[in-house]
Amino acid sequence: MTTSNAQSVNYSYATVPTQFVEANGIKFAYRSYGKTGDIPVIYFNHLTANLDNCDPRIMDAIAAERHIISFDYRGVGATTGEQGTSMPDMAKDAIAFIHALGYKQVDIVAFSMGGFITQELLLVEPILVRKIILAGTGPRGGEGISDVVGLTYKDIFKGLLTFRDPKFYLFFTQNKVGKDAARVFLKRLNERTENRDKKVKLSVLKKQLKAIETWGHGTPVDLSVFKHPVLVANGDNDRMVPTPNSYDLAKRFPNAEPVVIYPNSGHGGIFQYHEEFLKKAISFLTK
C-alpha cells in the first residue's frame, strides 16, 4: 500500500476527497479514509449506487476504527467504462481495483447487490478476503431475488409520482417508523455538499437490474468451502431481497455468526438501525 491511498482520520465522509486509480482499463473513483493499516475495509454498494449513496454514519463510525474505502463500479458515477453486465464481471473489476491499490487482503462490508458481487469475488480469489459482512443480500438463485426488477421499476415510478427518492419505498417499511427512518437516512445522504459524485445514468439501472435478474435465476453455489468469518444482517421485512435469504445465506457459510435481523424494518435495516448495526459490525471487524 502506498501512503497516498490513505486519507487522514480528520476527514469525514462528507469531506473526504474523491481519488482515482486505474485497473482493468478502467479509471475507478473511490474515497479512502480512517485509520491506516495493512487490511482495509472495502464497502461494496447497492444497485445504481454511486459514492454519495454510502451512509455517512456507517462510514464514519468504521473509519474511526479502521481504514475504509468506497468505490464506484464500472460505468457508475465518476468511474469510467461501460457498466458491467454480470455479477462475475463486476467481481473481477473489484479484484482489479483492490490490487491496483496495492492490497493483498481486505475485509468487506457489502450491502444488497454488493453482497452478490462479493460472493462472486470469493469464487475467483478467496484469499483476497479476510472477514465479510453481508447485509440485505442473499445467495445466488435465492428466493425472490429475480423479482427485484419489477419491484424496482414500480417503486421508481411511485417515487416520480410522489417526488421522492425511490429508496424511500424500496429500503424502508411504509409505516410511521419506516417512513421516519427513510427521511432521516435520505437527509444523511445529502450531508456532502461539495464535490459530489456524478449522477448514475438510466442505462446503468437497466444493465444492473438485468444482471441481478440473471444472478437470481442462477445455479446456487457451494459456499461451505469458504471458511471466512461472516456476519449476515437484514431487516425483518425486506422486499427487495426477501429476508429468508439472509437465514439461508448464513447457513451456507460454515463460520457465520448468528444472523442479525432488525425488527420493523426493510431492505435498509442496517441504515434504520445503524447504531445497533455498528456496535455489532465494529466488534466483528476489530476482534
UniProtKB/TrEMBL annotation:
Record's SUPFAM superfamilies?
Answer: alpha/beta-Hydrolases
Q: Which keywords does the record carry?
A: Hydrolase
- Its transmembrane ranges are none
Q: Where is the AB hydrolase-1 domain?
A: 40-270
Protein origin, superkingdom: Bacteria
Q: Which InterPro entries match?
A: AB_hydrolase, AB_hydrolase_1, AB_hydrolase_fold
Q: Which GO terms describe its molecular function?
A: hydrolase activity
- What's the protein here called? Alpha/beta hydrolase
Q: Which organism is it from?
A: Arcicella aquatica
